[in-house]
Hints:
Blueprint: H1 10-13, H2 19-27, E1 39-44, H3 51-54, H4 56-69, E2 73-78, H5 84-87, H6 95-114, E3 118-123, H7 128-139, E4 143-147, E5 154-158, E6 171-175, H8 177-188, H9 194-203, H10 216-227, H11 244-261, H12 265-268, H13 271-284, H14 289-300, H15 307-316, H16 331-337, H17 339-349, H18 365-369, E7 394-397, E8 405-409, E9 417-425, H19 428-436, E10 445-448, H20 463-470, H21 473-476, E11 480-483, E12 495-500, E13 517-521, E14 526-529, H22 533-541, H23 554-561
Parallel strand pairs: 1-2, 1-3, 3-4, 9-10, 10-11, 11-12
Antiparallel strand pairs: 5-6, 7-8, 8-12, 9-13, 13-14
Helix pairs in contact: 4-11, 6-7, 7-14, 8-9, 8-20, 10-13, 13-14, 13-15, 19-20
Amino acid sequence: MNDPGKRNSIVLTEGPSRAAARAMLRGVGFTKEDLHKPIIGIANTWTEIGPCNYHLRDVAEAVKEGVRAAGGTPMEFNTITINDGITMGTEGMKASLISRELIADSIELVARGNSFDGLVCIAGCDKNMPGAIMALARLDIPGLMLFGGSIMPGHLHVGADGKTPDPNGKKEIDITIQQVFEAIGAHAAGKIDDTQLEEVEASACPGPGACGGQFTANTMAMAGEFLGISPIQLTGVPAMSKEKHAASREAGKLVMELARAGVKPSAIITRESLEDAIAAVCASGGSTNAVLHLIAIAKERDIALTVDDFDRISEKTPFICDLQPGGKYVAKDYQDAGGSRVLAKRLLDKGLLHGNTPTVTGKTVREEADAAKETPGQVIIRSWDNALKATGGLVILKGNLAPEGCVVKVAGHERIHHTGTARVFDSENACFHAVESGKINPDDVLVIRYEGPRGGPGMREMLAVTAAIKGIPQLSSTVALLTDGRFSGATHGLMAGHVAPEAQLGGPIAAVREGDTITFDIPARTLTLNISDEEMKARLKNFKAPEPRYKRGVFAKYVKSVSSASEGAVTA
Length: 572
């Protein structure tokens, strides 16, 4: 009798007519017995280009051990990935968001092509995690997403001021890739020299794992836990932890339980679980990219989720996790403090979480929270009476500059009103060169356009620019920025991303002129170009979109099918 978990792969491996398929599979080492067991696809986003995914072969081996131990047959395959931190500030960064769609598509193709009974997607970076979850939601076969884990913090010797690199300094601080980007800005401003920049560069990434703060990778890993598609607590184990192998092996066992019970992502990814993921992002000061990715995941399940849902949930969810980029600590510290079970318990105690949807562990988030073990004296996941802010880390602004909305991360800075002179740039590179060459003044509002889903294409992240601003003291607390592109999760300061409609489509951001004034009003949730409606109409009347930057290939295909950022920038 067939194993109850072997539902889909019967058509691939069973019966006399499938002898040729079995022969080919036996040719690469699978046994007769292996092929009569449930077949579990292991989608691996391994690459040696960058630390986020470099160790995922080891994670995959542990997952496969767990699958075999639980009576299944794992079959590993690879998919692409783009490292945001490496490509940041270059034309290559345009490939990042586009890769999310290709990752989802490629996992779907291999899974459908091979009729897997279950699927484990191993991911470690900003776009391969949401891409993996999108594929799971689309395929709707038993499966889970396992995060490869965060990097350990780097250690930097600094001088008496506690921040200037000094190899002879007596004080040592923890750093992440965020500090490297900020050091680039400080170097451009003449605040540190080549040797000091080298000290930061050499110290930031001590080994494999995703960037250490509550940047996009760790934000999406946490969101996966609260969404229920990633095993809570197991997925947060750091990349180089001695517990990583056992945690990954356990994930392999879990997928077999899902396959035998027939539990599919459609039972896990629900309106309630999406709202729970948003609450966790807001409470932790997570990345603005979560807005794009969670809307995209919702679309795979035909669940109506909009940018307004993020603002509604953020408004009632205090910000309590003291994590970089706005705070002090890193993902390893969060996990050591008790991790997502502790945060879930906090949110449930305050009535801010539904917590009732099934998860891949077989328990609800509410039940997982009951098992929370908070480290005594931890200061990372704060109590409600010691919240960092009374509301969450994300706000959605609208107004005449962003009729469809834009997203601002308010975690880690206090400016809630700003009016400044528009400095207009039609690419990220042009803006970066202006910052680097000292052409930006305090209180300016930098406008970077034609970097949206279609205009970029691909919505480049602006960390090179925002970190350079942060590295220049006279600008870091005065300048604001808005763009139809995106921001890295490591960005902090008064920055509005995903401005929609984008400039390429004739959105109001295309009407901004050098010397205009722009007002951010966080309490009123508005982003305003201070001109009359009549003037706005006049400026846009004769708008003509620039020629597409790419005429063929994947970028050109993407432009023809991608939706607005306000709709998740999905292709359909």
